Amino acid sequence: MSSIDPNSLSNLQDITTKSIHLDLAVDFDKKLLHGHVVLSVEVLSSNLSQVVLDTNGLSIFSACEINNGSESSKLEFTLAEKDELYGSALTINLLSARNKGDKIQVKIEYQTTDESAALQFLTPQQTRGKKYPFLFTQCQSIYARSMFPCQDSPSVKILYTANLRTPKPLVGLMSAISVSSREEDDHTVFSFEQNIPVPSYLVVVAVGDLRRHELGPRTAVWAEPEMIDACAYEFENLEHIVSVGESLITPYVWGRYDLLVLPPSFPYGGMENPCLTFVTPTMIAGDRSLVDLISHELAHSWSGNLVTTKNWEHFWLNEGWTTFFERQITAELSGKPMSQLLSTLGLEHLLSDIKLMGEDNVLTNLVPNLTRVHPDDAFSGVPYEKGYNLLYYLKELLGHSFWSSFIKSYIHKFSNKSIVTNDFKDLLYERVNEELGVDGMSKLETVDWNSWFNKPGMPPVENKFDDSLQVAAIALADRWCATTGDYSDFNKPEFDKLYTHQKLIFFNELKSRQEKQAAGDNQAGYTDLSNPNLLDAMDSLYELSFCGNFEVRAGWLYYALGAHYKGCFKAAVGIVEDQGRMKFTRPIYRLLNKCVEEGGDKLAKETFLRLENTYHPICARLVRKDLGL
Ligand SMILES: CC/C=C\C/C=C\C[C@@H](O)/C=C/C=C/C=C\[C@@H](O)CCCC(=O)O
Ligand SMILES: [Zn+2]
């Protein structure tokens, strides 16, 4: 293990991979990828005799060197015993010692196995079209090592080319520019090039019955044929969103910005795979109300994909900056009040996660120590929202004009690099000193950096966000809290007038007040917010339990399950049957599991065990852990 990255077993201090070539075939019958990878490696130390790579769940068949295009004799290799967190180190013994600056090409023949957690093979039944199987990979955080042997650390950035052989009539896509495709019997070979260096977690694959709808000169959406029209409508403004992003930051350099809408088991809202952002179908709301997610994934084209965290302890550099850019784009697209409303919702999400993890839990540090911690087990809203609030606070402290130019300096200086928190901080001090002088430096001296970076819990400073869009949502919550059993004063049109995110403020407000009541604090004299008659009336009036907007449905269920309302159990099971996005699935299972007196714990465990194999392995592992199974 290297001090550069505690979550990688590769000898990062001795070698760095500069590029790879993947030649893979997709076998849907055996549910595996097989073929080879060629790694072009630069030696960083002297007298090097071994290349050590990350693997997890791979079967390694052979290794050899390639010298001037010809393969050497087979190299001896060993696959270490599997580490439960980080997989198996693959140690390849070189034929002769190498020194700093030497270049090595190593070719490894391998295949994935059913332990390759990056991969999810879907049966036709799990797709929208129900005719063909589907494959997609999710490699962030440390799953690329289960897709191909590599230095699976964001401290290493690689160019890549790939040939992907898939059975006809399916389409193969990757996080790169498509350069050609050719027919081979009953298969198609799709070829790709990624000419901007990326970390291993951004090398991904998707194969399925897919159609493409062009949205602009750089943009398109891919989806199953049954969804392509709805997706084309939802993302009609995508080209404009890309233009807004580059007007706020710097020019967009990746060539294409396409979207791929996955089947509902995709475990995240989106994943910023370069040239081809993967998105969940749960964001196809039919009213374009959830495109802030697209703004987020697009923003990663700068923060995360160009300027990358060196390891997962500095993940906030990816997500805090991206959330900051996302909210700037939202302000341009939907107005500053909406951007500030999302900031308020983000703080509520942060508070909820910190309460769940524990206010003294060191994994709620903005820069946590992840030695012997799987990054996914540290995943929460902290890197997103505590990181965003730090950057927002610094912008307010130092001024909009300085901050706008600093953003450009930060992206230009660190593009194509992998950095740590101090790299960001050092550049900030350098630019403030140059542009703001003594006055700016004295402002920086007021920043409690240690609390921001190294202390658990909520941020040391509370930013104040515009609350004008909250008024209508809070007022509606107040009216429900003042009821005495007669609900005839309420109607669905007044609820539907609220924006999606105002509805989430409404539910969060009710949930927060219900939690206070459950803890014995009802000083405000509100009606009993756990009263089944009230919840039943709200559900019926607003048609919540099977609402087509997953954010609204989930927001309602978080409140109703928190109130131990058994009348929503069917809908709770319904949402975890309908999709596998962890943002919704994990809280629903956790809340249902806490409804012990109502039998929710039994229902949660039975439902999970019934659905476990329909979830992506990442989701299945974390929900199993949440339920204590
Ligand atoms: C301190 C945390 C350290 C490391 C975590 C690193 C990676 C976490 C890994 O689990 C991957 C996360 C991928 C997230 C992808 C999309 C998110 O931006 C959105 C998640 C919420 C949603 O579904 O909208
Ligand atoms: Zn993100």
UniProtKB/TrEMBL annotation:
Location relative to the cell: Cytoplasm
Cofactor annotation: Zn(2+)
Cofactor note: Binds 1 zinc ion per subunit.
Gene Ontology molecular function terms on file: aminopeptidase activity; epoxide hydrolase activity; metallopeptidase activity; zinc ion binding
Signal sequence bounds: none
Pfam families per the UniProt record, alphabetical: Leuk-A4-hydro_C, Peptidase_M1, Peptidase_M1_N
Family affiliation: Belongs to the peptidase M1 family.
Protein's name in the database: Leukotriene A-4 hydrolase-like protein
Organism of derivation: Smittium culicis
